[in-house]
Each structure stands twice: as C-alpha cells, then as structure tokens.
C-alpha cells in the first residue's frame, strides 16, 4: 500500500471539492492555479523531491489556504520518493501555519512513522485523530498493525487489530495474511489458525494454499504433526487444492517423526493428483527412511528421484552421510562423500561435522585429524562451536587428553 492510495475512504469528501479548482477564475479562487499545477505534477508520478519541497513552500504561504487534499497528494508523492522524514517535517510546518489535517493526512503521517520504524509516534497521531473527533479507518488500522508487526511486536499488533475490529473497522485480506504469517513466525500457530478462520468469516475469502501452508509449516516445525495434518485436511475441505509445497510439508512432518506409511500415503495421493514430487519431498522421504535404517528403500527412492531427472543435492548427501555415520557404516558414508565430490557438489559444515563425528566414534582418530585440518584450511568453511566440541569429545572419549586440550 503506497501513500497515494492511503485513506481513499477518508479522502473521498476532500476529493469532491477539487471540482472547484477547474471552475472559471474569480477573485475567490485565484490561488487555485498553483493547486492545479501541484495536482497535475503529482498525477504524472514524475515529481522530484526537490520540486515537491518547492511546491510545499509555496502552498503554505498561499492565502486563502489551499485545500488539504492538495497537501495530501503532495505528501503522497513524497512518500513514493521514500521521503518519510520530509513528510513529517512538512506536516509539522503545515500545522504551525494553522492548516488542519484530515484523516488522509494523518494516515500518511502514520505511514511515515511506520517506514521509519517509529510506530509509537503513529499511536500519538491516532490519539490526535480521535481527539479531533474523527474515526480511524481501515488504512489507519493497517499501518498501525503493520508497523508493530515489522518491529517484532506481533502480539501488540494482534491486540490493536482486535480493538479496531471491535470498532467496526474491516481489514482487508492482506492484513489478515500478514498477521497470520507473523504469528506463525513466533510459534503462535493456534492463534494464527484462529485468525485464519476469522478471516474466512469476515472477508468471505476461503484462503489460499500459501496461507494454509504457513500454518501447516509452523505446526510441523514445532512437531505438532497431527495439528498440521488437520489443517491440511481443513484446507482441502474448504475447496483449496493442495500443491507440492503443502504435500511436502505433511510428508516432511510424517517422515521426520517416523510415520513412514502415512507419509507414503500422502506421497501416493500427491502423485495420483498429477502433482510431481520435488526435491524437498524426496529428501524428506530419504531422511525418514534413513532414520529407520531402511537402506534398500533409500536406494529405491534415490533411484526413482534420479530417473525423474532430479539429482541429489547437498541436503540429500548430508542426510545420507549423517545417518550412515550414526549407523556405524563409515565406509558407506565416506563413499557417499566421495560421490558427492565427484559430482561437483561442495560439502558444507554439516557434511564435515557428520563425517568428523563418525570417524571419531569409529576410532579413526588419524582420519578425523586429517579431515579437521582440511576444514581449517578451507576458506569456504567457518568452524563452529559444534565442530570443536565434536573433536574435544572424540579425543576425550579415547583418552587423548592432550589433543583434546590443544
């Protein structure tokens, strides 16, 4: 939402008065030529910041006072030029000149404070709006809620959203979706789901797969797999068709929690709907099968994946190497590592850490030391605390106290 569109409802009455600008000139409206010029310049979208400031300086000195809608359009154009600081300065000077803002002006000011991440000042503007006997509108609510969201104050944003709703202010779908996404990002998934259901009732919008997906993802990420599946089923019941992203989230959650038969059921359902699995789906199945030690099934999935033109990525190899090391299959793990290198893929820190842990657990201290030195001299690898802990614990376990201390 750009400032030019801000407060369309609150500006409508002011806009109607613009017709007077185009009436034949009289002594009473002789100043209108400047306003018409400002109006036209703003409409072109080519107004420069320095020109906007020149126009503003002329407007505030004009008598009789220009229409507030003229200032609104000028402020809106300056906002498009990322001039939030300039808008605040111009607003302050306008007020000192005795020119009263309307709701549209105040909304633009709130937007300026939002852009500067000073939304607390936006609430001061809200207080001024109500003090002057005006009612905030959906644009006011949008900017206040979004400002809080992007300053990390998500629960405060939800509280403001609820209060605005109680005042009869209807928000659009985009604000609901932003709040839902932010609630999911802080783990308030059930609140996000409740808000999503409220959105469906309030806006007659059944939602989309992206919004449902953010809720499913949050549930799965927090290991509430059944809740995530319930949302998936609710989505399909509401007539929203799942895509590979939504199926992938459910398959990932089930696979990572050892529920492989259910994961395969959703995989088969996805294929039956002519939705092609992507690398994320295959990697999820591979992880689940590796975790359960079903190596023959892993080989079949990798073969199937490659037959469809998808090559294993670093994530695939990392999963195979990590799980093979944990299963004491070091020779197989190093063979997978060599294959990864031969295919031109660069190992990352996770690859090396898994191999280090496997080598140390398997009493191959010399090989572990060589690999550690290789990592230290690789400019693309930044050793982590985890890496050093693996080495220290490995040496300590095998009685190499001096090496551990070093």
Automatic annotation (TrEMBL):
PPR repeat feature ranges: 137-171, 208-242, 243-277, 278-312, 313-347, 384-406
Domain of life of the source: Eukaryota
Listed Pfam families: PPR, PPR_1, PPR_2
InterPro entries (UniProt xref): PPR_rpt, TPR-like_helical_dom_sf
Key words, A-Z: Repeat
NCBIfam families in the cross-refs: PPR
Protein name in the entry: Putative pentatricopeptide repeat-containing protein, mitochondrial
Organism: Noccaea caerulescens
């Amino acid at each position: 939402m750009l400032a030019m569109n801000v407060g369309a409802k609150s500006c409508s009455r002011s806009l109607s008065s613009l017709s007077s600008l185009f009436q034949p000139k009289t002594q009473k409206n002789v100043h209108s030529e400047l306003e018409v010029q400002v109006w036209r310049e703003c409409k072109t979208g080519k107004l420069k910041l320095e020109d906007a400031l020149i126009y503003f300086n002329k407007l505030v000195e004009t008598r009789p006072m220009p229409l507030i809608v003229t200032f609104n359009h000028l402020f809106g154009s300056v906002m498009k030029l990322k001039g939030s600081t300039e808008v605040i300065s111009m607003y302050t000077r306008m007020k000192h000149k005795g020119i009263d803002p309307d709701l549209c002006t105040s909304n633009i000011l709130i937007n300026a404070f939002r852009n500067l991440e000073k939304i607390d000042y936006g609430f001061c503007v809200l207080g001024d709006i109500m003090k002057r006997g005006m009612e905030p509108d959906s644009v006011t609510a949008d900017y206040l809620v979004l400002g809080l969201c992007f300053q990390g104050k998500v629960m405060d944003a939800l509280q403001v959203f609820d209060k605005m709703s109680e005042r009869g202010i209807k928000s659009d779908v985009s604000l609901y979706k932003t709040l839902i996404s932010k609630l999911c990002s802080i783990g308030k998934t059930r609140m996000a789901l409740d808000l999503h259901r409220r959105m469906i009732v309030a806006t007659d919008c059944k939602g989309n797969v992206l919004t449902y997906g953010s809720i499913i993802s949050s549930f799965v990420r927090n290991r509430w797999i059944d809740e995530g599946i319930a949302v998936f089923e609710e989505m399909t019941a509401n007539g929203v068709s799942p895509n590979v992203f939504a199926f992938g989230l459910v398959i990932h959650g089930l696979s990572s929690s050892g529920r492989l038969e259910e994961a395969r059921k959703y995989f088969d359902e996805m294929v039956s709907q002519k939705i092609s699995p992507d690398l994320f789906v295959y990697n999820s199945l591979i992880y689940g099968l590796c975790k359960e030690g079903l190596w023959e099934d892993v080989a079949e999935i990798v073969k199937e994946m490659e037959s469809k033109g998808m090559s294993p990525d670093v994530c695939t190899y990392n999963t195979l190497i990590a799980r093979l090391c944990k299963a004491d299959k070091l020779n197989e793990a190093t063979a997978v590592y060599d294959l990864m290198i031969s295919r031109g893929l660069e190992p990352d820190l996770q690859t090396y850490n898994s191999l280090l842990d496997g080598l140390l657990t398997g009493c191959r201290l010399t090989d572990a030391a060589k690999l550690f030195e290789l990592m230290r001299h690789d400019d693309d690898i930044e050793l982590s605390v985890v890496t050093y802990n693996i080495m220290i614990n490995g040496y300590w376990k095998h009685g190499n106290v001096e090496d551990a201390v070093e």
